[in-house]
Amino acid sequence: MAGKKREVDISIRNKVGKHEFLTIIECRDRAEKGEIDWIEQIITNG
């Protein structure tokens, strides 16, 4: 999956000292509680 483009609603990159951070926000409108699998996929393949 590396190198594949993904769509997120908001991404924020910042640097504190020598550490770089990436925060992503995905907006979803669902009647039911979603599964956590998609979050784990982002972390694993990020």
Give the strand tally.
2
Fraction in helix: 10-25%
Rg over C-alpha atoms, rounded to the nearest angstrom: 13 Å
Work out the strand percent. Answer: 25-35%
N-to-C terminal Cα separation, in Å?
9 Å
Give start-end ranges of low-pLDDT stretches: none
Strand and helix order: EEH
Largest sheet: spatial strand order: 1-2
The rough form would be described as: extended
Largest sheet: 2 strands, antiparallel
Structural class: alpha+beta
Mean pLDDT: 79
Summed up, the helix count is 1
Describe the structure.
- Helix content is 20%, strand content 30%.
- The chain contains 1 helix and 2 strands.
- It has one helix at residues 37-45; strands spanning 10-16, 19-25.
- A two-stranded antiparallel ribbon has the order 1-2.
- The protein is extended, with a radius of gyration of 13 Å.
- The termini are close together.
- 0% of the residues are buried.
- The mean pLDDT is 79.
Q: What are the SSEs and their pairings?
A:
Layout: E1 10-16, E2 19-25, H1 37-45
Antiparallel strand pairs: 1-2
Name a few traits of the molecule.
alpha+beta, 1 helix, two-stranded antiparallel sheet, 46 residues
